[in-house]
Amino acid sequence: MVETHSTRMLILGSGPAGLSAAIYGARAGLAPIVVQGIQPGGQLTITTDVENYPGFADVIQGPWLMEQMQKQAEHVGAQMMWDSIVEVDFSRRPFRLIGDGGTVYTGDTVVIATGAQARWLNIPSEEHLKGRGVSACATCDGFFYRGKKVAVIGGGNTAVEEAIYMTNHSHDVTLIHRRDSLRAEKILQDRLFAHPNIRVMWNKEVAQFVAGGTPEALVGLDLRDTVSGAVSRLDVEGGFVAIGHSPATELFKGKLALDKDGYLDVETGSTRTNIPGVFACGDVMDKVYRQAVTAAGTGCMAALDAERFLAEAEFEASAAA
To answer: pLDDT per residue over 46-98, tens digit each?
Structure first.
């Protein structure tokens, strides 16, 4: 017999957005179910030092923060499910979703908080030094590199914005791009080229992130010239990979409206998707800010939007009876 779970609010994803939605939904009496997905806790579970989440004077650990959020959500009445959704049906309410083991979930509303993953270079030394000099978020980690030499890798808007941002902390920022021109918008390129603390290295790609010291951390980059093949060394203490993000929206293609970059499309100023009763929050719909605190904020918004949607639907049903 197929196992079925029903709720007034079904939440996909258990990062800051999903758990914030769960907290608000539970406090509103909606008894939310959170399907945690393949990475319970989201990207913060692979983030060590967190220094920019409001409410903590000292540096905290990402996994600990997510553990506390989950405990809070469970304390107020949210239910956690260790499962991943593989099929969705948004054609009618209650919405019907299926987990990878065949479990059926139905929800009067659905909140999607499946997040986005940073794209990496996928070289062995990169994985080895993540959190020890190698990062994919200058806004998150740039503060730890005050006064140090850093490099940003990429050539699009994200890379240029992160290079400019890093000048708040470093007087020696190098942008590394594998081609001889940038893909970023012209206004961003103008700001980049005009900045005295940024230099650009053209036709270079990272062959290796170089480790050293005790404890071991990033000390440099081995760069391969994409034209000549020659390898050179750049001494840096911070390397920021800024080649974009991939939103976790594959499941929703053909089911919900996506923008040109593959993010869930929501109404301006809300979390409403093009399907009434389906809401999106966090990095799966936010390609601009991508911070834990903004994800949590949109999670709150999604829960409030869902609560209002249910109240209006119930009022209309009562009036029609």
So the answer is: 776 788 899 999 989 989 999 999 999 999 999 999 999 999 999 999 999 99
Nearest to 66 by CA among 28, 1, 103, 13: 13
In the chain, pLDDT over 70 holds for what percent of residues?
Answer: 99
- The answer to whether 254 and 275 are in contact (CB under 8 A) is no
What are the b/e assignments for 297-311, b being 16+ CB within 10 Å? bbbbbbbbbbbebbe
Structure tokens at 95: 């919405």
pLDDT digits (tens, 9 = 90+) for 38-47: 888 888 887 7
Which pair of structure tokens corresponds to residue 156? 């699009």
Q: What is the DSSP string of 4-56?
A: EEEEEEEEE--SHHHHHHHHHHHHTT---EEE--SSTTGGGGG--EE--STT-
Token couple for 321: 């009876």
Q: How many residues in total does the chain contain?
A: 321
Distances (CA, A) of 239 to 43, 44, 146: 19, 19, 13
Nearest to 37 by CA among 251, 244, 245: 251
The alpha carbon of residue 273 and the mean position of all alpha carbons in its chain are separated, in whole angstroms, by 18
Please report, for residues 215, 264, 275, the alpha-carbon distance to residue 254 in angstroms, rounded to integers and kept in the order given: 48, 11, 12
Q: What is the DSSP letter of 263?
A: P
- Which phi and psi (to 5°) does residue 35 adopt? -90, 115
Cα–Cα dist 136/119, whole Å? 8
Mean pLDDT of the chain, nearest integer: 94
- Token couple for 198: 């940024």
What are the tens digits of pLDDT across the range 154-170? Answer: 999 989 999 999 999 99
Which pLDDT does position 46 carry in this prediction? 72
Q: Residue type at 311?
A: A
Structure tokens of 289?
């800010």
> CB under 8 Å to 92, separation ≥6 — which residues?
none
Taking the model in full, what pTM does it have? 0.82
Pairing outcome for strands 104-112 and 95-99: antiparallel
Q: Which residues are catalytic?
A: 137, 140-141
